[in-house]
Write a structure and sequence with these properties.
By secondary structure, this protein is α/β, with parallel strands linked by helices. Helices cover about 45% and strands about 15% of the residues. It is built from 14 helices and ten strands. Strands 1-2-10-7-8-9 form a six-stranded mixed sheet. Helix 4 links the parallel strand 4 and strand 5. Helix 3 packs parallel to helix 4, helix 8 packs parallel to helix 10 and helix 11 crosses helix 12. The termini are far apart. Pyridoxal-5'-phosphate binds next to helix 8 and helix 12.
């Protein structure tokens, strides 16, 4: 089998219809990574990583994930006949867990994994040792662990190169930012947007130093809660070389952007996918971007993955069970 693919990549870059004009921007674009086969940009990583695993003859692998890497790995493993075990934190969103289970992965929800440094360290030690003993490679979406798979994500930067003056990227561990900055080259300013409640890269950027300090994460944005340095140092180096800025945004701003994208752009994304837009608003306030410049936000993951995060927006528009004889009367509600 020569190529590993489920049709990932070449995702739509759509122009904003309402939010851009409301912000006074001439051209705001959304790069819909939510349109990838399993609903997130991680498919670019997993396609490249699974190709590598098949080349080295792996029959099984183990992975850590906040949810999206696991969803993607489960799907591609099902397709290429590989067995996988996926370790996630116990609070991973329901949609992501269901994807992993539905594709037949062994799903292990470990209490305090990622949130507690001691537990996290122990899990990684155990996974490395299992991996070495049973020849089951460890899959983590970060350059530190899987540089060849991460090269697959650089295609996202290539697709955006020359398309925008500014690209806004949500940051958790920092691998995605690194891949986009590498792929986009020097044609765009690539900015990092991170939750203030889990600020590693953005905090170092604000301090003006190169030290990534571990933090206690309290963010509720799934995918962006990485409180220690996985690819944060490398992302910070790329950020400085690129001339981009880092923004630390509140969770509430992210949820507000998610609701805005639902209501006024028809974009159904998970909170991490709305984080870039929160950075755009900050950049406008600080005059880091000009209104006539072209701006691209990376919408990294689909809303189906995290239904709980959408429930509040949906509840604003309650449905009604109606008697067929009263239908015409109820339809008046849209007039
Ligand atoms: C939807 C989504 N967006 C953004 C990110 C952040 O990527 P990174 O951890 O490489 O910074 C993740 C990571 O899991 C994610 O799932």
């Amino acid at each position: 089998m020569s190529t590993v693919t489920l049709g990932e990549g070449n995702t739509p870059l759509v122009e904003s219809t309402r939010i851009g004009p409301e912000l006074g921007l001439r051209r705001l674009m959304f790069k819909l990574e939510s349109c990838n086969p399993t609903g997130s940009y991680k498919d670019r990583f997993i396609a490249a990583e699974v190709a590598r695993l098949l080349r080295i003859g792996a029959k099984a692998c183990v992975a850590t994930s906040s949810g999206n890497t696991g969803s993607s790995l489960a799907a591609y493993s099902a397709r290429y006949g590989m067995r996988c075990a996926i370790v996630v934190n116990q609070n991973a969103p329901a949609g992501k867990l269901m994807q992993m289970q539905a594709h037949g992965a062994l799903l292990l929800r470990v209490r305090e994994f990622v949130s507690d440094p001691r537990v996290t360290q122990q899990v990684f030690t155990d996974l490395h040792s299992f991996s070495a003993t049973y020849n089951a490679p460890l899959v983590v979406s970060a350059y530190r662990h899987c540089p060849i798979g991460m090269e697959g994500v650089e295609s996202l930067g290539h697709e955006l190169a020359g398309q925008a003056d500014h690209i806004f990227v949500p940051v958790g561990g920092g691998g995605l930012y690194t891949a986009v900055a590498r792929g986009a080259g020097t044609k765009s300013r690539v900015h990092a947007v991170q939750p203030a409640r889990c600020s590693t890269v953005a905090a170092a950027f604000a301090r003006g130093d190169d030290e990534i300090r571990p933090v206690h994460s309290t963010t509720r944005i799934s995918g962006l809660a990485v409180p220690f340095d996985i690819d944060a140092s490398i992302a910070l180096r790329h950020l400085r070389a690129n001339g981009g800025y880092a923004f630390a945004v509140e969770d509430e701003e992210v949820f507000e952007m998610q609701s805005w994208m639902l209501a006024e752009e028809g974009i159904y994304c998970e909170p991490a996918g709305a984080t870039a837009l929160a950075g755009v608003r900050r950049a406008l306030e600080r005059r880091i971007v000009r209104r006539e410049e072209t701006i691209a936000c990376i919408v990294t993951g689909h809303g189906f993955k995290d239904p709980e995060s959408i429930a509040e927006a949906a509840a604003l528009h309650p449905d009604r069970v109606v008697d067929p004889t009263t239908l015409a009367q109820h339809l008046q509600g849209i007039l």
